[in-house]
Design goal:
The radius of gyration is 22 Å and the shape is globular. The chain is built from 13 helices and 16 strands. The strands form three sheets. Strands 5-6-7-2-14-13-8 form a seven-stranded mixed β-sheet, with helices on both faces. Strands 9-16-15-12-10-11 form a six-stranded mixed β-sheet, sandwiched between helices. Strands 1-4-3 form a three-stranded antiparallel β-sheet, with no helix packed on it. Helix 5 crosses helix 11 and helix 6 crosses helix 7. The chain is α+β, with helices and mostly antiparallel strands and 461 residues long. It folds into two domains: 151 residues, Chloramphenicol acetyltransferase-like domain (Chloramphenicol Acetyltransferase, 2-Layer Sandwich); 249 residues, Chloramphenicol Acetyltransferase (2-Layer Sandwich).
Length: 461
């Protein structure tokens, strides 16, 4: 295939994330403390998109049987900016419902392939959470969550001091093994366990059976485009850290354990038969070997090892069962089960082997076959779970402070999606659930109940 002037090949992941089988979209929702009527959206688009990477001013072209490529086009800004009109003079609670319906519609309406794959939606109505809301709709083929945070770093400033950079917690675990980790008596068993874990995890991933049908998994056809409810929960990061320290686990273990425990509670309340159903979450793992986020300028440098784009893989994590009354009454034991599973996953190379398998399938059988492999893996799961680390300090855009933000991923063929992001000492959990099948308010209530139980039990230890 000969590239025309200005064209560049689409990355392997970009080809199967924007295919006839898969089409994932990231919705980043930014909530502002002050009205956003005077935001310069044209300037935002230039700074965040057009100036950052040629992909934002290109369309994806290519027939199904040939490698796709990014073709530069002239960006018509007005086609990418949407400012919805809602009834005037209503309460914040009314606009909460309007925003929820708007986000649901955004999730099921695909981005046109005839123009660059992004949009900016400006919500100028006051809701319970914000004086104004900005929604960035980005096709996943443009990049993953790491890329999204890089865009924020490059476009937003610190609200308290714009001359200082936003800071983030480390992306890598700071925990270190006790004692002399170089001892052969420690290294050899760990290596052997790693090999065994890799073989078992990779085999389980390839041969994994379909999850049972439960109140959180319908297995209905067309879930990619099914209407969704979106609810969010905010947790104190300090409280999560206290639980983490008491149990000697990680923050991810705690929040994942809360989500899993709440999911089991919801399943049992909806159907006692699902108490011991086989259910799993497909967890997204970043495969970049880095310790911090980088700005767009750093990501696109020639020696940046291709940090821009999509560098992630997926791993099945079983949701522990309420196998007996003791487990359901002891949420800490439940979290420790999650911790044990995640520790084993860390001492395994299965996620990299899975990523390699997907790439091999794409290379030898095409992007559509690779996309179907990913689709089937997702469809066999009950929950899709992803997380991001956000800034420690408050962000601002053109002197408009950002009160909070969260994100969701649309187009994923599961009944339940969970996306977690940290920001300003808070953890924001966004839960997307299949409309008409999952009671979104009840599911949220169960997760909050799980958090409350875990907090009380932890304090009693």
């Amino acid at each position: 295939m000969q590239l025309e002037e200005g064209e560049v090949p689409v990355s392997p992941s970009g080809q199967y994330l924007n295919s006839a089988t898969l089409s994932f979209t990231v919705l980043a929702v930014l909530e502002f403390e002050v009205p956003i009527d005077d935001l310069n959206i044209t300037r935002l688009i230039k700074d965040m998109f057009i100036s950052s990477n040629p992909r934002f001013s290109s369309i994806m072209v290519g027939e199904n049987n040939e490698a796709k490529r990014w073709k530069p086009v002239q960006v018509q800004v007005e086609n990418h900016v949407k400012t919805p009109k809602f009834p005037q003079g209503k309460s914040p609670e009314f606009y909460d419902r309007c925003l929820e319906e708007y986000i649901s519609d955004l999730a099921i309406n695909p981005l046109p392939q005839t123009r660059p794959l992004w949009e900016v939606h400006v919500i100028k109505y006051e809701t319970s959470n914000a004086a104004g809301t900005l929604i960035l709709k980005l096709h996943h083929a443009l990049g993953d969550g790491y890329t999204l945070i890089g865009l924020l770093i490059s476009t937003f400033q610190r609200a308290d001091n714009p001359s200082l950079p936003l800071t983030f917690p480390s992306l890598q675990s700071s925990s270190k093994p006790n004692g002399d980790s170089s001892s052969i008596f420690r290294v050899v068993p760990r290596v052997l366990r790693g090999v065994i874990n890799t073989v078992l995890d990779f085999g389980t991933s390839i041969l994994k059976k379909e999850d049972d049908l439960t109140p959180i998994r319908s297995a209905n056809k067309g879930l990619e485009m099914a209407p969704r409810n979106t609810t969010t929960i905010t947790f104190s990061l300090d409280t999560i850290k206290q639980i983490k320290s008491r149990l000697n686990v990680t923050i991810n273990d705690v929040i994942t354990g809360i989500i899993f425990y709440g999911s089991r509670m919801y399943m049992e309340e909806e159907s006692s038969e699902s108490r011991n159903a086989n259910s799993s979450a497909l967890v997204v793992f970043n495969t970049r070997n880095i310790g911090r986020y980088k700005s767009v300028n750093e990501m696109v440098k020639p020696n940046a090892d291709k940090l821009w784009g999509n560098q992630f893989t997926l791993s099945h994590v079983p949701i522990p069962k309420f196998s007996n009354l003791g487990d359901s009454l002891n949420p800490l034991k439940f979290i420790l089960k999650v911790h044990k599973t995640m520790e084993r996953k860390k001492n395994s190379s299965a996620v990299y082997m899975t990523a390699g398998l997907i790439e091999s399938v794409r290379k030898f059988r095409g992007a559509e076959v690779a996309a179907k492999l990913i689709q089937n893996t997702l469809k066999n799961s009950s929950i899709a779970l992803s997380n991001l680390i956000g800034p420690v300090e408050q962000m601002a855009l053109q002197n408009h402070p950002v009160k909070g933000f969260y994100f969701t991923v649309a187009g994923v063929p599961v009944s339940t999606g969970v996306a977690i992001v940290s920001y300003m000492g808070k953890l924001r959990v966004a839960i997307t659930s299949e409309k008409g099948y999952i009671d979104a308010d009840k599911f949220k209530s169960c997760v909050l109940k799980a958090f409350d139980m875990i907090c009380k039990t932890t304090n009693a230890v």
